[in-house]
Design brief:
Elements: H1 2-11, H2 14-27, H3 31-46, E1 52-57, H4 64-72, E2 76-82, H5 85-97, E3 104-108, E4 122-126, H6 135-146, E5 154-160, H7 168-180, H8 185-197, H9 205-214, E6 221-226, E7 229-235
Parallel strand pairs: 1-2, 1-4, 2-3, 4-5
Antiparallel strand pairs: 5-7, 6-7
Helix pairs in contact: 2-5, 3-4, 7-8
Length: 237
């Protein structure tokens, strides 16, 4: 999936990395709660183990999933992989400020660039899948994660679903969310246009489940929802 990965990483340049922390919390109502619950779901799935190695795919930006997991489980360590250098650097800055950088192996690149003999106890894929164009590339990404997980290991997947134009009420509410946070009418219009053109989310929860099944994961449990956004926990079969 190198071509699609290159396409995705090019979207997250320095200017987007600089604004990501603020804008992601507007675009996703409940941003922090989703990441906190993701940590709770992984801890519950693993049985509160004192140590674990967790793969964090698309970790660039806020590194919020790592911060949440690290606060809950002081013995866990993390491998953070992201193809965007500005986004990974932004994550490193957040981790350094939180005193967590020593617990994280920062990897610039893609999942398929990681050593093939590594095996992880758990993984997260948050805010990534809807930026990967096409089901084939989405499936390839999920499979590349699956092969690096131990048998039965949990995976948290979170991101947008639905063809945006198919849900006009949700789309309008998403625009109202931006207006609620002080965006002008022109800015709301621009952001609505950008979301319609800039991503390729799975078209339903059933489509998410199918992608996971085809990649070697079991049934997924939804634990968070916010307009277009959903978050699920599944496990490697």
């Amino acid at each position: 999936m190198k071509s699609s990965s290159t396409h995705t990483s090019s979207k997250f340049d320095a200017s987007r990395a600089n604004e990501y922390a603020r804008q992601s919390r507007i675009a996703l109502a409940g941003y922090d709660a989703c990441h906190e619950l993701a940590a709770c779901m992984l801890a519950a799935s693993l049985g509160n183990v004192p140590t674990a190695n967790v793969l964090v795919v698309g970790a660039g930006g806020t590194a919020q999933e790592i911060i949440a997991m690290a606060a809950l489980e002081p013995g866990w360590r993390f491998t953070a992989v992201d193809p965007s250098e500005p986004m990974l650097e932004a994550a490193a800055q957040q981790l350094k400020a939180s005193g967590l950088l020593a617990r994280v192996d920062m990897q610039l690149g893609h999942v398929h660039d990681l050593p093939a003999d590594r095996r992880y106890d758990a993984a997260t894929l948050i805010g990534v899948l809807h930026h990967v164009p096409g089901d084939e590339a989405k499936g390839a990404l999920l499979q590349s994660i699956q092969v690096l997980l131990k048998s039965g290991a949990p995976l948290v997947v979170a991101g947008n679903q639905y063809a945006y134009a198919s849900q006009p009420l949700l789309l309008d509410a998403w625009g109202q969310r931006w207006r609620q946070q002080g965006a002008s009418a022109d800015e709301v219009k621009a952001r609505l246009g950008k979301i319609l053109q800039g991503a390729d989310p799975p078209h339903s929860e059933a489509a998410v489940q199918q992608l996971l099944h085809e990649a070697g994961f079991g049934d997924a449990t939804r634990f968070f929802s916010s307009l277009f956004w959903g978050a699920w926990l599944t496990c490697k079969v």
